[in-house]
Batch of 2 targets.
Target 1
Amino acid sequence: MATLRSLYRSDHADRQELNTNFNVDYVVHYRIPPGGKNEAKAEAAFVQLIEALAKVGLATEVRRGDDTSLLIFVKIASENLLKQQIYRYRVQDWLYGVRTSAPSKDLTSYFEEEPVVEAEKLRLVYLLITKPKAEGGAGITPKIGHWKYVCSVFPLHNHAFNRNWIKQWSTKYILDDSDINEIRDKFGEKVAFYFAFLQSYFSFLFFPAAFGFGAWLVLGQFSWFYAIVNCLWSVVFFEYWKKKEVDLAVQWGVRGVSRIQHPRTQFQFDRETKDPVTGEVVKVYSPLKRLRRQLLQLPFALACLLVLGSLIISCFAIEIFISEVYNGPFKQYLVFLPTVLLTIFMPALTTVLTNLGQRLTEIENYETQDSHQAALVQKIFVINFITSYLPIFLTAFVYVPFAKVLVPHLDVFQVTAQKFTRNGKVETKAFQIDPDRLKKQIIYFTVTAQVVNFLLEAIVPILKRRVFKAVKEVQEEITHKETPEKRPDPEEEAAFLDRVRNEAELDEYDVTVDYREMVVQFGYLSLFSVIWPLTACSFLVNNWVEARADAMKIAMSSKRPIPWRSDSIGPWVTSLGFLSWLGSLTSAAVVFIFSHDPYGPEGDPSNLKAWALLLSILFAEHLYLVVQLIVRYVISGLDSPGLQKERAERFSMRKLHLQETLGEELAESAAAADFTGGETITRAALEEEARLASVSGQTGPGQVFWQRQRGAAETIQIGRLFISETAAANKTKSS
Amino acid sequence: MATLRSLYRSDHADRQELNTNFNVDYVVHYRIPPGGKNEAKAEAAFVQLIEALAKVGLATEVRRGDDTSLLIFVKIASENLLKQQIYRYRVQDWLYGVRTSAPSKDLTSYFEEEPVVEAEKLRLVYLLITKPKAEGGAGITPKIGHWKYVCSVFPLHNHAFNRNWIKQWSTKYILDDSDINEIRDKFGEKVAFYFAFLQSYFSFLFFPAAFGFGAWLVLGQFSWFYAIVNCLWSVVFFEYWKKKEVDLAVQWGVRGVSRIQHPRTQFQFDRETKDPVTGEVVKVYSPLKRLRRQLLQLPFALACLLVLGSLIISCFAIEIFISEVYNGPFKQYLVFLPTVLLTIFMPALTTVLTNLGQRLTEIENYETQDSHQAALVQKIFVINFITSYLPIFLTAFVYVPFAKVLVPHLDVFQVTAQKFTRNGKVETKAFQIDPDRLKKQIIYFTVTAQVVNFLLEAIVPILKRRVFKAVKEVQEEITHKETPEKRPDPEEEAAFLDRVRNEAELDEYDVTVDYREMVVQFGYLSLFSVIWPLTACSFLVNNWVEARADAMKIAMSSKRPIPWRSDSIGPWVTSLGFLSWLGSLTSAAVVFIFSHDPYGPEGDPSNLKAWALLLSILFAEHLYLVVQLIVRYVISGLDSPGLQKERAERFSMRKLHLQETLGEELAESAAAADFTGGETITRAALEEEARLASVSGQTGPGQVFWQRQRGAAETIQIGRLFISETAAANKTKSS
């Protein structure tokens, strides 16, 4: 059986099953539950599934999956239907202002001008499969309700493209726009935005890496100059990205797609009302009710802080006790105790809290997938913030300033330890603050953890799949012995079906995970890199690998993602802004606390002037805000390819419309400047018209008034008379 | 001679000259300079003026103005030209996204559906007069360059409307939307936005007035509870207004008009280039050069602070010395010395600085009038901020906490005073902090100053006009005696011309002044009302009068304003946000410093715990920011008439377009929900098509794959077989 990894060996490059998808658009992975009653249900649902798909114009073929599942291959039955669908969605885009110009009505020439890309086709077919029946889709909702036997609906990888993609990227230093555009065409804008962000971030990292290296050589730790430059960099990067994001959205023609939102099928409405304006039936859920539920986020955040915080603090305290106070037997093993505790409990607690967050988000009951996702991301960010940064906060703002006060309270461990030792005495040494602790911790989080994380991400899924496959093979072997031989796959499809069965087993790609990693990383840089200026260097190396690893993850360890559109990196931009802002506070505090004495104030909190600390934080924060305003203003003034494109489109539209309404020769000049006034109206004609109007019938004070001077010539004559009279009067006066 | 005030006496209501404008759209006030050489120039320019106006289709009549000026009456010559112009501008609006739908091409019925309002007509005629010749206007730029003899170009008041307006408003407690809409139709959106803002602010004031009154009774001064509620209120008001602003803009059909910007005639470009995209010739001014000049704002702000600050501090010091230290002769007169000094120097310095600000803004050389205005408003705000709030800042944060330390340094006055007294001895008394000083000051600024300001605003212009008129009449009398009698005005026009001569003398209405007043007032409420909770009560009364006074100012003491459009209150919203935010800081600081001891810490700064003060400020500020986020989120979820209107327009447009492209019957359903898929395509037809396609020619692995199961029925049949096989296998396995 071909593992996916083996697909990328060069000798397999010309294997037929990898170079064709047999025109399959989607595969529906349909699980057959064991048990007689369920089987009947599954069969009935299967029939309905095929009928529903056929009804909306999708052709189907069914094949065996693994032992307990079917693979249903789906493709759009006619080219015509596809074009109709795409045309309609493009018209919708235009109506919502996503496209500047309406698609032309001549379909044949239109699709030659703006051909259908792979991502667009796949997106529309997916919508056709999953949209509710009332809106013209087949209404298939994987894993939910009636369709619970549908495990997944996924498109097939384009392995020819993937192979080429991975090969190109692994031999390239810098990714350029065309690389990102290729991803966009294959995997949609949502994934492309991630890579675009990663790429921008990577390019921006060159500066802090170089500057950080210099600072490390020259300025050392805790330099206020480094802190300022670092903050400034993070502001510039943040503002740059916000502009870049809009720019990309314009270039990709997706600006504003977040307005065309996909309704969540799980959304539960209080009542249906008719929209007073449009007469549409609208599903309403009381926003006040939602707000009340959203307020649960506060106790949720507190719970996270409490649960994760107490774990982190306990481990921290144990660690300090063992490494810096305890001096008895087994010390060399005991130092690993906190790490072991963290490794065991942290993932468990994080999972529990993440599930809780998911549950909360479901309770909040959003109407659209976007707002649901954004709310979930918020909660995930809270959890990640605590797990990632709290240990360092503890070291920097509790351990170093207050250690001498707090360490004696670690007696509790001593007492505990005494119970387990024979003579009731625990050997201790005099407590000494570890001056390098903070730096060591930063290095751990920014180097070691990144490497470990990368390995976990790259290797664990492969191992997992291997183990699963092994188990399955053993199971199948047992089954095969007992059951009649299944009919084999047709020869020309066998390899292809094997490959599809493999793809069906893969995880779904979740871009959120990758964003989270990058945003947390940005946080280390912004919040704490003043402690260890080499941080950015480590990230620079890490991110070069990261981009390739993520590409490999999509190409090899995941099902092909549904090519959703999006016009930004969504809620993550808020997180970035928050971290960048918080960086100004922490950097100021760290510099203030540690800069005078590189080892901190040696555990005596009274050495610290609290007001001076607060003042420097306050000052740094407001400096940050002012600088942000200025940077934003400057960046908003810059031109960009996206804005140019938009301007060009608007210009051509303006010209076109004016040609239609005003005629060719005028439009040429009118489109460029503002609209010209009365060139077509000659002066004489106007005067004539005015005179006619005034003569014909209407009389009254207005008419008499306007008839005193007939035409400009008379006005000029009378005016001249007045002027000379006035001048004469003036002369008399002054003489 | 009729004064304008007399126009509003009821007995004049039926006077003919007040009820008609003789169809005059604009009056050009043309000054004839004394002196032979200038006279010739003025005459030549006059001829060019009339010709330029005639060329763009404007009819003119000339009449005598006062002794040294002409009045040129302008109206658009033909109804047709007007409609053409308006149609073009509406098309432009549509192209820029201001209007949702394009104007229909049938002009006659179109103008019946959407008639021209007065403000629209006047705006277009003004544009026709003032736009550069290259863009189809007459290119008249009052007071500038070639047109320096043109004093002003102004529309005539609609006195029938004005009379009615003032009468209605003075008998009404609450203004409603229709009142604001009337203003919009007559004076344009820019003025209407001011009144809408004033009205919203007024309604919002009811809450702090009631709550403040309660707090004054129950909580007293310096209550943290009042401070929190007040901050919350200011956040809610600010966020509400930002939404209301957008809403009004949508309702008035001006959302986004700030994008259609009027170029500044004074803009000087570095070079002209062709836009790479559109080929338009664009005038470019280096943004870097502008940025460099914008940086001058920093020294400008510092200069303002230094100049105004030193004046304020000196007067403050003198005042304290005289009122609280000095005890010698003439004390009862000397206490007025600081007030006299302030009254003399403050307006002078403010004028100088404002002029400097204007000069700076000109140097910054903006391309559009909007950005110029915004930059100017910024500078005016800085000046006003200092003059309005610095005295209170001094009292609250310098005088009260540090007086005991600082007052001894006032010796300098003592020494000075000694020189002027005979015996060289100045009687002094022991210094005592005036505990009520802060409150007195707030009352002065929020009650006394408001009343004084109102009187100045209402009465000074009238006095000024009277004096001018008297001087002029005397002058004219002298002149008349010496010069030959002028021909009198024609009888039927005499009264009308008199009225126009009066209007020509009036000041131009500047809405900025009124905004400034309200924003500064909002600042007192947000920054300092915790010192005196009755502040809002005073403002409530004041603003009722203010709205009427401003209406009278427009109707009687000003030329009719050019009815410009605008889609917001512009740069003032930034100032409001800033003051609201700053309020959280100052309130926290004031409460912290004064709440323990109502008379402050009695001049001993060491009593204050600086870190606690800073901490409370820091806390208050961040609380404010969090609350703002929440309020913004909640308000963004609310529906509003404007949003409803927009939705309705978009809906009808969507429907219309779909009717055109898809045909009537489909559009009905498609417009409502998303687009339906394949209802028109029957299942059988699709399957047939797929089969045909697969049979006809194309063969290959894909074709064979899709031909295994012909149609959904076969797929179902095979699928069922697979399911039962699987089930059988499962049974065997489990048995």
Note: Residues 437-482 of chain A form the longest helix (46 residues).
Target 2
Amino acid sequence: MNEQLLLSNIRSVLIRQEETIIFALIERAQFRRNPVAYQAGALREAIGEESIVGYMLRETEKTHARMRRYLSPDEHPFYVGLPAPVLPPLRMDENPLRPNQININPNIRTTYEQEVVPYICASGDDGQYGSTAVCDVQSLQSLSRRIHYGKFVAESKYRMQPARYDAAIAAGDREALTREITDAEVETHVLERVRLKSQTYGQDTGGDATQSKIDPERVVDVYARWIIPLTKEVQVLYLLARNERQ
Amino acid sequence: MNEQLLLSNIRSVLIRQEETIIFALIERAQFRRNPVAYQAGALREAIGEESIVGYMLRETEKTHARMRRYLSPDEHPFYVGLPAPVLPPLRMDENPLRPNQININPNIRTTYEQEVVPYICASGDDGQYGSTAVCDVQSLQSLSRRIHYGKFVAESKYRMQPARYDAAIAAGDREALTREITDAEVETHVLERVRLKSQTYGQDTGGDATQSKIDPERVVDVYARWIIPLTKEVQVLYLLARNERQ
């Protein structure tokens, strides 16, 4: 099997992404919720209808698109109409995924802005919109990468046991697929590891302050309530699309 | 004294920045040295004389400048001629620093590209120039912030004991100033803490692999050889400039 599809390799990519996500959430949690940063048209004269976070995200994606970020099968942009890459395509390992158009970033962004931010940040406005937006771009990009990695997970699971999924795919049965791809033991293991990492990274090591930068249980909840379910959603969408015209 | 100048507050800012720096170095060390990414004109037709990393850094700074990042006294751009902020100025606490033009980013960038990257990355070229550039922007920004925080350190030290520095400042005696601002005990403490953090964050927690993502001693060396000396350089430059027309 393609190396990228070995479940052990996928797991180590996902494990490595945990640090990036936890770190991004810790950084964001320094600032207040700052609802103004998510308001369309808050700076209408300067940046039009885009919110501050949206503006920062789109500008970042433009630059990253030129650096061919979105040619990689594990990267998905939030915006359409991005500029063409200026870097020549990388000779990459063969893309092991089936061709697909799945991109749940609109859902990820809404979930992040409306549920995750209010959950991890103190309410109110500290005026730090620029820093907020920088952190949000980091969070959104790392969440998107993690969640869409579900495609690799699904392809890998399918290839190991196609018969397990074929009937549900043919029937378009989402619930059955969700049941089949769910591994409660692995999920528990992920949450335990995230708890441990959040406790470690969230501490003010060596500082005088002994309080945590973020409640580690909040980070665990972000995984349990949003990241894991959204990754499973990607897996199911990907398996369903596997049946469409190839 | 201004809260930003309390040595205990400065220390906790510097301690918090350690995570960001260590993390950025760990991320960068995933990739090879990729000398092409630092070559001026490597993509001449697409982005002109700028290197790939330079291009990414300048584009990022343009966006961040619009978000008024460089109005903050602890932020220093690598590029000049950046666009004006579109966000209205933040009502910030009074800037506790003396007016000064010190910006050693050219030095930080050369040091990083020519010394730090070859020290932390395996030699060779893996073609991952886009990811390399994204990591480098993160590293350079976090290093610049840490190193220029020396201004706050110097102002704080000066206000506590002006008489200790006045003669050396008047004489323009860099060596004497370097001696006076050096606290070997604090430096040892910083290095010990960085070692501990690098050991913790650099581990593949929970993964099957037991090897480190980066040799923690390399991170300690980056602090000892480059970050601490450059921070002290900023302190000395700042103290010397304290005497110039205010």
Note: Residues 216-241 of chain A form the longest helix (26 residues).
